Amino acid sequence: MRDLDHLEDLLSEPSEGVIDTCRRLDGDVLVLGVGGKMGPSLSRMMRRASDAAGAKRRIIGVSRFAGGTSRLQRQLNDWGIETIACDLLDQAALDRLPDTPNVVYMTGMKFGTTGQQSLTWAMNGFLPSIVCQRFSRSRIVAFSSGNIYAMSAVCSGGPTEGVDTAPVGEYGMSVLARERMFEHFSRTLKIPVTLLRLNYAVEMRYGVLVDLATKVWRGQPIDVSMGVFNVIWQGDANAQAIQSFDHVASPPRVLNITGPETLSVRALAEAFGRAMGKQPAIVGTEAATALLNNAQLSHRLFGYPRVPIQQVVEWTAEWVMKGGVNLDRPTHFETRDGRF
């Protein structure tokens, strides 16, 4: 991984499947919450895939973009993505957004939930209802989270889409509220929707692997009580999200999005330690359960991730050792009580 530009190129590189989807898709695309961790690269992938498919469409990214014309806005504009500054909780501002036949819903709140519970519920439970009413004639791909599942046995492979939801903590419950609002309005207004339960997208600047590698590099303790997890390279998560426009339905189609492996925190810490010449500071003991996600269905629909986990581990170790950009936004993946 040479530098930040190389990373951005890889994260937004469309697969043939994404190009095919963009060739079939009719109309412009509105990305709500484009300013988040995944929004810029997903929007750029949609732009690149649409251009490769010869599909003339607008890709429009919506976020608060605090502080006037931000650096992110300029970057998105340079990539051929239009931008609109908007507080989506402002009904009048939401109503002014352009009508588009395709909407990617990426907005939500996780970190900082504790102490801001009311805002969390407004963002995760109330906002989807007014977005559905505003874009009742659109196709909607909406990001959800595997946090709506209960903890699973570490050897179980994780819950599939048909497993009953049982979230732990207010964040997980508010995500379930998000899904229920999309389900309600999809049924009553006949909105074609796909719900994406994601665990966890990773790249060089943030994610579970960055958290682990950084702790190993700095000699910080690594709690292994949440002993295993799933991840997927963010570029592959972007690709599967875009291709899920082919699977929108009413009532909503639910898809788990993650990699095929159940990864050991201890084994990965030790792998980073070998790569870095460090001895990981392991603390705690692995619990019998963990927050997991079984994505066999999405793998059948879209294929396995293009970037294997071993490659991501190698890139992450190199990036952390050379002091690459870090968003300094810990995932708190080790949290077991649902308090973020």
Automatic annotation (TrEMBL):
InterPro entries: Epimerase_deHydtase (IPR001509), NAD(P)-bd_dom_sf (IPR036291)
Record domain NAD-dependent epimerase/dehydratase: where: 29-198
Superkingdom, natural source: Bacteria
Coiled coil: none
Pfam family, one: Epimerase
Listed name of the protein: NAD(P)-dependent oxidoreductase
